[in-house]
Each structure stands twice: as C-alpha cells, then as structure tokens.
Amino acid sequence: MNDEVDMTTKTTKKTPASRRANNGRGLFRRMWSITWKLALAGLAVVTFYSIYLDQIIAQKFEGQKWHLPAQVFSRSMALYPGAAVSHPQMMAELKLLGYRKVANPRQVGEFSASSTRIELWRRPFLHPEGDQVEQRVMISFDSNGVSSVSRVSDKRQLAVFHLEPVLLDRIITGDGEDRLFVPTEEMPKSIVQALLLVEDRSFYEHHGVNPFAIARAAFVNISAGRTVQGGSTLTQQLAKNFFLSSERSLLRKVREALMAVIIDFRYSKDEILEAYLNEVYMGQDKSRAVHGMGLASRFYFGRPISELTIAQQAFLVAAIKGPSYYNPWRYPDRIQERRDLVLRLLMDAGDLTTAEYKAAVESPLAIRNLNKPAHQKLPSFFALVKQEVNERYGDALLKQSGVKIYTTLDPMAQEAAEIAVTQTLKSLDKSNKSLQVGMVVTDKYTGGIAAMVGDKTPGFDGFNRAVEIRRPIGSLIKPFVYATALAPNSQFTLATPLKDQPITLKSEQGKTWSPQNFDKKFSGQVPLLTALKKSMNVPTVNLGIAVGVDAVATTLAKSGWQEPLNEYPSMLLGAVNGSPLMVAQVYQTLADSGVYRKLTTVTAVLDADKNPLPVTRLPKEQAISPDTDFLIQYAMQQVVNTGTATRLGNAFPGVGLAGKTGTSNDSRDSWFAGFDERNVAAIWVGRDDNGKTSLYGSSGAMAVYLAFLKERPPISLRSIPVNGVVKGFFDRDTGVAKESDCSNVDALPALTATYRPVNNCGEPLQWWQKILGQ
C-alpha cells in the first residue's frame, strides 16, 4: 500500500524542465495580456488623438485657412475720348503695370506703340464695378489727350475703358505672414508639374505618407553622413507649415505623418495642392514672410504669376527648397543652377522640348531690381487711407480677411512728387539747412488724393507734414478774397480800380495794424486783376474790408476749409493756419468750377466675396458760382503768365497753368498752390522749428511744383465757355466797361449780369444822338 502511494507521488512530481516550460508559457500569457492591453490602450489614445487632430484640421481647412491681408490698390486709370491722359503718361503707366512692349501683341500683358497710338491687350482684373475681361484695344491720342478707344476685333468705339489698378501694398494686421491667394485653376500648369517632379512624384498615389520615400531618404542620408534628402510628401510639408513648428524631433515627425494621413483621407488631392501652393514659404521681404506662389511671383519678378515665363516658373519651384540659401540677389549662381535642374527634369519628363529647355536655361534670372521695393512705401498716404476706412467703414474692417481697398492714388503722380521733393529739397538745403516739406496732389476730375508726401525723405514713416502741420498760409488766401468780391451781382470786375494807399486799421482792443506791400511801395490805385496777379497786400485788404471779412470767411468755409477762422482783417493776408491738405481741399474747389467735394483716398471696398461694402456718399455742393470761378481761374493763369509765378510760366510756354504763391511773415513758410487740366497741387516748404528760411513762395514751394511738372508734363487748362461770362472791354485807367471799338481798353472776361458798357465809348453825345434818345 505504501509502495502505491510512493508511486503516485513520483508520477505527479514536476521535473525542472517542465517547470521552466510552464513558467515560459505563463510569462508569454502575461506578456501577451499586457501587450494587447497596451496596444488597445495605445490604439484608443491614437484614435482619440486622431479625432482631436481631425477637428483641428477640419477647422483650418473648412474655415478660414489664412488671414489674407487687406489689399490696397491704386486708382484704375479711365480712358475715354477727351481724357486728360497723354501718350507718354500712358506708356509710363503700362511700364509700371509690367506690360511688355512688342511689335505685335499676341497675348495678354503685351502692347505695341507708335507716336500717336497704342495697341494694348489688357489683362482681366477685378474692378469695383465687377470683373473686367481681357480685351484688345486701340487707343489714339491727340494734343489734348485721348481721342478715341476702340476694340481691335470689331473697331467698336468704347465709351470708357479701364486699366487695372496697381497693387500698392497689403495691410498686415496679424502674424506678419503675407500672401496673395491664387486658385489652382489660375496657377500655371508648368508650376504644378515641376513641383510634383521635384518634391513629390507619387503625390497622386500615396495616402499622405510615402514609406518608400522615407526609407530611401534615410539610406541616402546615412550613407552621406548628413541630411541631403528629405522623404516628406507635399501633404506632410503642408501639415508642418499649417500646424507644427520647425522643431526637429521624432515626436513632431510622428505627429506630422499622422496629420498628413488625416488630411489625405479627408480632402481631395487638388484641395491639398491648392493649399500647399498658397501656404509654402517663399522668402522674406524685410519683416514680412512671403508665402505662396502668387505673392512670390510679384516679390521676385514684379508681375502676375499667369505671365511668368517657363524659366521663371521653374525658379519659383527651385526656391522652395531653401529661400534663404537660394536668395537670387545674394546667390544668383546657386538659384540658377537649381532652376536649370528643375528645367531638365521637366524636359526629361516630356513637358519641355529640347529647344524649349535650351532657350529657358539660357535666359537670365530676370528678377526685379532690389532697389525698387516689392510694395509701395507710402506712409503718409496709407495713414490717411486707414483713417478714412475707420471713419467710413468702421475700425473692424482691416481685421477682416480678403478685403480689397480701392484708392485714389495715382502711382505716376506719386513718383513724380517724390522725385520733385527729393531733388528740390536737396538743392535748397545747400543754402537753407533743416528744410522740410509737405505736398498734396489731387485729381481735378474725381476729387481724390492722387499723391502725398509728408517728409523730404518720402518713405519716412513719422510726422506727416502734408496733413499735420498748421502754418500761416499767406497769400494763398487771396483768390478767395477776390472770389467773394467777384460774386454775381457784385459791383466789382477784374478791371475795377482798387486803392493802393497807406492804411491803418484799429481793432476793438485799440491795437493798430498797417499792412504793407511786399516792396513797401504804394501806387495810388491798381486794377483788381493786377492786385491779384502781383499779390499786392494793401489793395487786397481794401477789397476785403469792402466786401466784409465775414463774407470772405464764408467763401473759404464753403470751399472746404474745415477749421475755425478768426475773422480779423489780418485773415485777408493769410493769418490763417493750415496744412497742405487743407489748402489742396479749397484749391480743388477752385479748379473744379467752384464745386466743393470732400477730398477722399478711398473709392470702394470689396469684401472677401467681391461684394462692395455700403458706404455713405461724400458731400458735394456748389461753393462758388461757376461764372465767378471762371474769372478767378483766368486771374490765376495771369499769375503764372505775368505775375508772381512768371518763372513757372516761362518753364512751360504755351501751356495753360493756374497758380498762386504764398509767403508768411519773415519768410518762415513758403507756399504754392496751382493746377493744370489734370491735377491740383498744394506745397509747403519750411522748418519744423518755425525758423526763417529766406525763401519766398516762388523760390521754395513753387520750385517743387516746377520739378513735379518736369517729371509729369502738364496738360494745358481747357478754356471752356461758361454761361454767364462774356468778353468785356474796360478802360485801362478807370475800369469803366466800354464797347469793343473804343480806344484805351483791355479785353477781360466779365459776368454778363454786371457788364454794362457805356455807349459811344463814354464820349459826349452829338445833337442828333440826343434827338434820337441815344
């Protein structure tokens, strides 16, 4: 019995080998249990994390991918029969817009020219009034400007034809990223083909990540001992650019790959490609990061991406690898070598013929001149634009994405103003140190500000003297004294004699004031026209006292002077503080047949969907009667012909110009305001410390205007008949209206309502005339 028990015990007792086997199986089961639980937990974590990433991605892709800076455009040049646009100005405008001059236009963006005509194939563009399609036109010119605009296809005459505006700048309010969005369908196909060849050949085959490319890149990099090749797909690069930092870590790469897979799963390849082409970093424009092919095209070449040559398109693709390393202005050989590589890949893929390849690689880089900024530096003008946008559209507008602001700025007028200011102040500074300047140019026809310079260094972003100074305007006020006197039903004419004798006025406080002429001399009396064109002080004061200082103040206020006026006799000689902008406003009224329109910088604003934003219209009213204004314009032309601005008239013989010089006491402020058929200009030259300058209106501010017109040749004022104005004849000595056949008379324009010539030249009537009642 005991033996049986022992036998049983022996058979159930485990050997060491069996124990090890059992332990192994138990460990395996425990490891398996832990592994699948960890895997399940990891899967759950990845799943929830993917859901989290998916929400982030969806929010970005299906919402607003980018905050697109507000685009600011210049005025759109309008061409129509009679438009005050000369042939040279049109040529300069086309050059500024990047049109190519050819013998025969064959595609959009080209033009040809003869001495009197320009054939143009205009680009399509977005106008505030709607999309403008590409159009081929013939523009003819005569001595007055544009004579006709007709379509080349059917010779049909066009009532009005617009050129596209210049993209001046983009107002960046966010993270410093700058871009111009370009839809995929508007992107040149060669750019897309080259991009895929260089960056991701299997883009349309993989699912966001390409394991074979990663493995190949790893092998190459290990063999080289450094990073020479990347394995990221375009989708991975997009994920990194959109959502991740440039940190180099395994965790970041894993997150990038996961996001790439999600992006590829959720969105089409074309959507991904469009996002990449508009997101990719393409360089640095000082403090602005240049993103996307659309902006890169303008940054490097100064033209729309649709007009790039195949070599220029290859350049953009080549620069993606390292915009700093391949900076064309610093390392032209590097970028040219890589550009040529891209072109060779296109040829090998059959997208370029051998001849096209050879022509492309032999072409120069043709990048824009680095001395010409990619965007306009217009601190004075842009400050006014922002102010007007806030006042008329609300301060939240510039925070919206994709807004388009159309302004009144004339790029050619701005360039001419900047050159005139820079050159003239440099010359004047030789004898007058510390001079400064403020200049405003308006468009006579639209009432828009065409150019503005607020400092002798035009690009300086600081105190804006065109808007912010307040200095005595001197004799610039005189045309408004005379406009008040020459109002309809007035007793005054251009020939009326005015007293030029010593005068002393006493204020209510008992203080006396004795105005003097510039030469400290008196002539007894002078015709009203002579007093104005010679800018004589005493006759002007006598005239102003006669019509009433308050009446003069009313005329000035109606013409657009927005600030309070002290209605003292000294006001008649310009003891009124103002700025170039304020002067430009009232002289715009004189130039525009007496019509007051508040000067503006903004003509229209479109939202991201191209819809115009509603806005109240600016005020407009007849401030000075058209017939009176005609007389003032005539008188101001005499200022240029034979008055204080004769030097200006001599510089442009035969050209009708109107102007007025002004100088404050002790020659502290030099002023000039004037206009041709196209532009009104108001200019101040002086010192910030209000020190003496030894300059007069004619030697300081008018010198700037003269230089401006040399850069922007003037268009002669058109003498258009005005109802209520006739050709009058006045006795030179007495100013009495006479008949045309009388002796000792001057022919001057006169108001119909007040021109009453005496019969028989004012001589005693004969006996037979008395009988006939004559």
TrEMBL record:
It catalyses: Preferential cleavage: (Ac)2-L-Lys-D-Ala-|-D-Ala. Also transpeptidation of peptidyl-alanyl moieties that are N-acyl substituents of D-alanine; [GlcNAc-(1->4)-Mur2Ac(oyl-L-Ala-gamma-D-Glu-L-Lys-D-Ala-D-Ala)](n)-di-trans,octa-cis-undecaprenyl diphosphate + beta-D-GlcNAc-(1->4)-Mur2Ac(oyl-L-Ala-gamma-D-Glu-L-Lys-D-Ala-D-Ala)-di-trans,octa-cis-undecaprenyl diphosphate = [GlcNAc-(1->4)-Mur2Ac(oyl-L-Ala-gamma-D-Glu-L-Lys-D-Ala-D-Ala)](n+1)-di-trans,octa-cis-undecaprenyl diphosphate + di-trans,octa-cis-undecaprenyl diphosphate + H(+). Residues 79-163 form the Bifunctional transglycosylase second domain. Its main location: membrane. It is found in: Cell membrane. This is Penicillin-binding protein 1B. Residues 175-344 form the Glycosyl transferase family domain. It comes from the Bacteria. In the C-terminal section; belongs to the transpeptidase family. Pathway: Cell wall biogenesis; peptidoglycan biosynthesis. It comes from Shewanella scandinavica. Residues 438-691 form the Penicillin-binding protein transpeptidase domain. Residues 1-21 are annotated as: Disordered. Keywords: Antibiotic resistance, Carboxypeptidase, Cell membrane, Cell shape, Cell wall biogenesis/degradation, Glycosyltransferase, Hydrolase, Membrane, Multifunctional enzyme, Peptidoglycan synthesis, Protease, Transferase, Transmembrane, Transmembrane helix.
